C-alpha cells in the first residue's frame, strides 16, 4: 500500500518514517512525501495509479489542502484514492468543507498515530 | 378801626393753622386756631360797628398778646417761633405808642414821626421775617423733596439689587448644577474609557494568546511525537540488542544508557504534554463564543458545578471543608447560553473561590473561621445576574486590574496556568455579550458578578 503524505513541514517525513518503521520495513506500507500542493499534483501525474491513500494537511502556503482535494477528485475518479485531511483547527466548518469536497475523513493535529494506524488498517 | 392789627392777627393765625395742618398736629390745635380766627373776625366786626378806636385798639393788643402768649411757649409750635417772635416787637411798639398817646398826647404829637417810623420798622421786621421764613421753608421743602427722591431711588436700587442678587443666585445654582452634571458625566466617561481600554486589552491579549498558541502548537507536536517515537525506537533497539553477542557487563552498560534515554524521552514527552495542555487552554480563547447557544437552566448548572468544584478540591485535600450556599432565584429560568462555556466559567470561579477560602484557612489554622462559598442568581429587567462570593483571602489592589489577563496567576508554578479567569472573561464578554466584574476586599473575600443580557 502506497501512501502519499502532503505537508509543508519537512520533519513530517522523518516522523512518519520512524512511526511506520516496522510497516515500511516489512513492505506492508510504502511512504511518499510532498511538501506542497503543487508538488503533490506533479507527483500524482506520474504516480497516481500507485497511490492508494493520500494524507494531506489543509493549511499550506500556495495550494491549500482543499484545492489539492478538489484536483484529486476531478482528475482521478477511478479508482478513487482514499483522502484523509489533516488540520490544526478541528472545527465543524473545516469538517463540513472537507467532507463536501469528497474527503474520506478529517483528522486533527496533533495526530494520534495509534488511531491513524487503526484507521489505515480499516481503509485498506 | 385797627385793620392792621386784624390783618396781623388774621395772617398769623392762618400761618399757624397752615403749619398745624401741614405738620399733622393734633386736630385740636386746628380747631382752636379756627376759633381764634372767628374770634378775630368777630372782634373786627364789633370794632367796625361800634367804632370806638381807642378802646378797641387795646382789645386788639390784648388779643394779639394773648395769641402770642398762648403760642410762643408751646413746643408743638417751636418751628413757627421765627414769625411769632417777629410779631412781638410790632405788638410791643404798637402798645408803647398807643400808651404814650393815651398818657402824654403832647409828647406823642411832638415825636409822632419817630413813633410812626418805629411802627413801620417793626412792621418791616415782620415782613422780612415772613419772607425769610417763607424762603427757608421753600429750601426745606426742596431738601425734603430731594431726600424723598433719594429715598425713592435708594429703594429702587435696593429692589433692583435684590432682584439681581436672586438672579445671580439662580444662575450660580444653575452653573453649579451644570458643573456637577459635567463632573458626573466625566467620571462616567472615565470609567467607561477605562473599561473600554481594559476590554480592548483583554481582546487583543486573547487574540495574541490564541495566535501564539497556534504557532507553538505545531513545533510542540513535533517535540511530543519525536519523543514518543524515540521511546519506541529505544524499545526496538533493546530488542535488537538481545540478538547480538555481548558480554554481560557491556550489555548492562548499554542497557543502562538505553533505559536512561527512554526515561529522558518520557520526560520530554511528559513536559511536552504539559505545554500542550497550556496551549489547548490558550486555544480556548479563540474558540470562546463559537458553538451553539441553547436554552439552559442556569440554576441547575450553577448548583452542579458548585458541587463539582467542591468535590474536585476535596479529592485532593481530605481535610478541606466549606459551606456551600446556593441562593438561586427561580425567576432566572432558562437562558440562551453556551452551556459548556458557561460551565467552564462557573467551574473556574468556584475553583478560585474554594482556593481562596482554603488559603485563608491555611494562613490561620486556629482561627474561628467558616469557609463559605455562595452562588446566587437573579433576573433583573434585561439581565441575568450570577454572583459567586467567597469569604477567602481577597485580591490585593495591586493585582486586581491584572486578574483577567492571560497567564496572570498568583498560584505557585505548575498549579495554575493563569488562563482560567481570562478565558472566563472572554466567554462572558465576547461569547455572551455580558459583563464580568469583581468586588473584593483583601482579607475579607471576593465576589464575581456576571451579567448576561437575556
TrEMBL record, chain A:
Pfam families: Response_reg (PF00072)
CDD domains noted in UniProt: REC
Annotated Response regulatory domain residues: 2-124
Keyword Phosphoprotein among record annotations: yes
Keywords, ordered alphabetically: Phosphoprotein
GO biological process: phosphorelay signal transduction system
4-aspartylphosphate modifications at: 57
Entries under InterPro entries matching the protein: Bact_response_regulator, CheY-like_superfamily, Sig_transdc_resp-reg_receiver
The name this protein goes by in its record: Response regulator
Record organism: Fibrisoma montanum
Automatic annotation (TrEMBL), chain B:
PROSITE patterns: HIS_KIN
PANTHER family in the record: SENSOR HISTIDINE KINASE (PTHR43065), TWO-COMPONENT SENSOR PPRA (PTHR43065:SF42)
All residue ranges annotated as the Histidine kinase domain in the record: 211-454
Sections of the chain in a coiled coil: 131-202
Reactions catalysed, as given in the entry: ATP + protein L-histidine = ADP + protein N-phospho-L-histidine
Claim: Phosphoprotein is one of the keywords in the record: yes
EC nos: 2.7.13.3
A Pfam family: HATPase_c
A GO molecular-function descriptor: phosphorelay sensor kinase activity
Lineage start: Bacteria, Pseudomonadati, Bacteroidota, Cytophagia, Cytophagales
TM stretches of this protein: 55-72, 84-107, 113-132
Protein known as: histidine kinase
Biological source species: Fibrisoma montanum
Domain of life assignment: Bacteria
Keyword tags: Coiled coil, Kinase, Membrane, Phosphoprotein, Transferase, Transmembrane, Transmembrane helix
